[in-house]
């Protein structure tokens, strides 16, 4: 990972959604790489979310809503980042059915505001925009999606992310490219790891049930997803950000980020794997009448592997073990969350198992 440190050291990097799950982990890693990290985020949804992960180690933080175009422009003008990671989003599939207008406003217009503000930032080299594997038009055949497959799934969350990609492509091709600013769009699979407390997500729901000594409910046990540890996913984000920092135009495109084939398993298989790492845990299968979700979802990350040498380091078993170790150390043993997070980052950076 030495090449990452060489690129990020002393660089000013702005992370939107820095108090969220992936954003907080990324801030921790960027800090370890010697970057000056600027956070932009709304307050966390709950005290538990902030307490159970950690206060992300940033040089400064701005509590603004990216739907406010003037506030967004002021922050970027003040901080003048060299690179932006855009994670801020309404990222919950089920919530998108309850608040579709909010989902589109947060995911689409906030992205447009950010990219428009980026046009005026002197010295900016690139923006990495996080979307999702759910942008693909899913025919349920289980074939791994590649970046050339058609987009356009109709669920509110999925559609909002397709629109996010259209905004990113428009600003990239119409405005930012001529200014030497690249835009990489990352379609990541299902990310797991310590400190995720989002509602209606599998691992947080399992951990909450296990801690309470209650059976964990599986709504869609046969659904297949591309499961990957947060550190493997962030390795890809950082790799693409590094290429943008050095002006590599090839990185300014859309990229799949998923696990090796062993990470494409069903919800039930993932849950049983976590159950094995949590003595006394119990599972139950029970539908809850929620909105239908895709049954088969697989990703092909061959493009990123071929272009920049991306390779996931953690298989499914190790990803689950690291996740269970984080939650167990923090919630059962009382270890400070930031200590456990940075310990796992350090181990990953040195090639050890986190």
Features:
single chain, 354 residues, alpha/beta, Rossmann fold, three-stranded mixed sheet, 13 helices, 44% helix, globular, CDP_4_6_deHydtase, NAD(P)-bd_dom_sf, Epimerase_deHydtase
Structural write-up:
Belongs to the NAD(P)-dependent epimerase/dehydratase family. This protein is an alpha/beta fold. Helices cover 44% and strands 14% of the residues. α8 packs parallel to α10 (267-276). It is globular.
Topology:
Elements: H1 2-8, E1 12-16, H2 21-32, E2 36-40, H3 47-52, E3 60-62, H4 69-79, E4 83-86, H5 93-98, H6 100-118, E5 126-130, H7 156-176, E6 182-188, E7 190-192, H8 202-212, E8 216-218, E9 224-229, H9 230-245, E10 254-257, E11 264-266, H10 267-276, E12 283-285, H11 302-308, H12 316-332, H13 337-349
Parallel strand pairs: 1-2, 1-4, 2-3, 4-5, 5-6, 6-10, 7-9, 8-12
Antiparallel strand pairs: 9-11
Helix pairs in contact: 2-13, 4-6, 6-7, 8-10, 12-13
Give a short overview:
This protein is of the alpha/beta class.
Uncertain segments are 47-52
Task: Tell the overall outline.
Answer: globular
Number of structural units classed as domains:
1
CATH architecture: 3-Layer(aba) Sandwich
What is the structural class?
alpha/beta
What's the tally of helices? Answer: 13
CATH domain fold name? Rossmann fold
Largest sheet: 7 strands, parallel
Strand residue percentage: 5-15%
The H-level CATH homologous superfamily, spelled out, is NAD(P)-binding Rossmann-like Domain
Helix content: 40-55%
Task: Output the helix-strand order.
Answer: HEHEHEHEHHEHEEHEEHEEHEHHH
- Average pLDDT over all residues: 91
CATH class (first level) name: Alpha Beta
C-alpha Rg, in Å?
19 Å
E-strand count: 12
Placed side by side, the strands forming the largest sheet appear as: 3-2-1-4-5-6-10
Cα(first) to Cα(last) distance is 15 Å
């Amino acid at each position: 990972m030495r090449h990452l440190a060489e690129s990020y050291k002393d660089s000013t990097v702005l992370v939107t959604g820095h108090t969220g799950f992936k954003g907080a982990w990324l801030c921790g890693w960027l800090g370890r790489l010697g970057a000056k990290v600027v956070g932009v985020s709304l307050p966390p949804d709950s005290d538990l979310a902030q307490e159970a992960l950690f206060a992300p180690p940033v040089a400064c933080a701005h509590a603004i809503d990216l739907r406010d175009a003037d506030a967004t422009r002021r922050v970027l003008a003040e901080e003048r980042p060299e690179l932006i990671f855009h994670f801020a989003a309404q990222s919950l599939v089920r919530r998108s059915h309850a608040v579709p207008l909010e989902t589109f406003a947060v995911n689409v217009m906030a992205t447009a505001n950010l990219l428009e503000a980026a046009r005026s930032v002197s010295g900016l080299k690139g923006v990495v925009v996080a979307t999702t594997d759910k942008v693909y038009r899913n025919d349920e055949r289980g074939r791994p999606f590649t970046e050339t497959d058609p987009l356009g799934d109709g669920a509110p969350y999925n559609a909002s992310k397709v629109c996010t990609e259209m905004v990113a492509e428009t600003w990239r091709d119409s405005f930012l490219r001529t200014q030497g600013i690249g835009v990489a769009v990352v379609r990541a699979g299902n990310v797991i790891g310590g400190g995720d407390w989002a509602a209606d997500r599998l691992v947080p729901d399992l951990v909450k049930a296990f801690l309470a000594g209650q059976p964990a409910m599986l709504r869609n046990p046969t659904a297949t997803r591309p499961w990957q540890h947060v550190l493997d996913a962030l390795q890809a984000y950082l790799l693409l950000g590094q290429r943008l920092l050095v002006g590599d135009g090839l990185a300014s495109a859309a990229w799949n980020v998923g696990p090796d084939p062993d990470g494409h398993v069903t919800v039930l298989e993932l849950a049983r794997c976590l159950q094995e790492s949590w003595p006394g845990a119990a599972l139950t299968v029970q539908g809850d009448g929620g909105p239908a979700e895709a049954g088969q979802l697989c990703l092909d990350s061959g493009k990123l592997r071929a272009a920049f040498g991306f390779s996931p380091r953690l298989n499914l078993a190790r990803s689950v073990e690291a996740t269970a170790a984080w939650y167990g150390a923090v919630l059962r043993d009382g270890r400070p969350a930031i200590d456990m997070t940075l310990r796992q980052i350090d181990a990953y950076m040195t090639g050890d198992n986190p």
